[in-house]
Amino acid sequence: MKYSFFFCILLVLNLVPDRSQSQYLTQFPKTDSLVALGIKQIHNLQLDSSLATFDRLIAYFPEHPIGYFYKAGVYDLFNQDYRITTFEKQFEKNVNLAIKKGEKYIKKNKNDELAYFYLGGAYGFRGIHRVYKRDWLHVFIDGIKGLKNLNKSLKKRPDFYDAYFGLGLYHYWRSALTKKFRFLPFISDQRQRGINELKLAIEKGRYAGVEARISLSSVYYNETKYDSALIVNNWLHSHFPNDPSILYFRTRIFERQQNWRSMLATAKHLLEILMDYQYKSYGYLVECHYLQALPLYHLGEKEKSLVHLETAIRLEKLRNKKKELEGPNEDFKVIFKNVKKLRKKIQKGK
């Protein structure tokens, strides 16, 4: 679920070209170019450069949430892509500052839609981040606050098509996560509404295309529409062939399609990307070895499959769950259970 940072970024960017909408952006014409530069650096996984760019925004607007928001996004993106908590404190510091600055700012500037966008985005950003911690209560609290502020801004400018990216995420995943409670009168199924909003952001949004596609692909995966998920992922992979999150979902899509050779090749590439980064999530490495062992098993390469499973079992001993994030699908305990189950199956000659 690599949505949080860019969900908020892309909502806000749509306001930048209209200088009359914001006193801050009118005063500093270079703001939009700095934001664009920072986003480009993030897509290329240039951590230090993107942080330096957003530090310049903070220097311009020390009392506005803009710079703190983007810095939080940089840290969260790297945490999510590699399932680490290395930048956890930096993320929490900056996202909380963005919320604090935003709440204070809108008290004095109640008609500034930019402030509501950043504040709503920061709440949504923090809420989605908490999904990885399985902190469901605060996920929904932050989600409600984020939606409230987002809608306040949209009332002023309903043609912010990029904003439908955030709405689509909220409406789909709120419905998906509350599936067991739909018997309650206030819980309705708005999954299709969310899907339609994501498509609208892709078709008419100015900046949301890439991240809305990432979200739509994962939504189709969750809906078991694997052919549709792959079509969207193919576009993403052609533009960002080394992105860990895109590679991960590509691997899982091939798994569901039982396209074992493509699954094996993609999982191998993903593992190479993760091993090349200085900070490691051993739980993620365990899963990557399993994602190679499984297709090898189905391709009849059981000895090679067993090598990956044994490696996964050794790596599990190095895992520190307090320093690692859970993945977007199964919890680690389920993944490791599958590792041991497949190893046992091979050892019994099945």
Explain this structure to me?
The protein has 350 residues and is mainly α. It folds into two domains: 1-160, Alpha Horseshoe (Serine Threonine Protein Phosphatase 5, Tetratricopeptide repeat), CATH 1.25.40; 258-350, no CATH class. It has 17 helices and no strands. The chain has helices spanning 4-13, 23-27, 31-43, 47-60, 66-82, 88-108, 113-131, 136-156, 163-177, 191-204, 209-222, 226-239, 244-257, 260-275, 282-298, 302-316, 332-347. The model is unreliable at 1-28 (pLDDT under 50).
Query: What helical percentage do the residues reach?
Result: over 70%
From the spread of the alpha carbons, the general shape counts as globular
CATH architecture of the largest domain: Alpha Horseshoe
| Radius of gyration over all CA atoms, rounded | 21 Å
Largest sheet: none
By secondary-structure content and strand pairing, the structural class works out as mainly alpha
Total strands: the figure is 0
Task: Summarize the entry for a quick read.
Helix 1 (4-13) runs antiparallel to helix 5 (66-82) and helix 10 packs antiparallel against helix 11 (209-222). The chain has 17 helices and no strands.
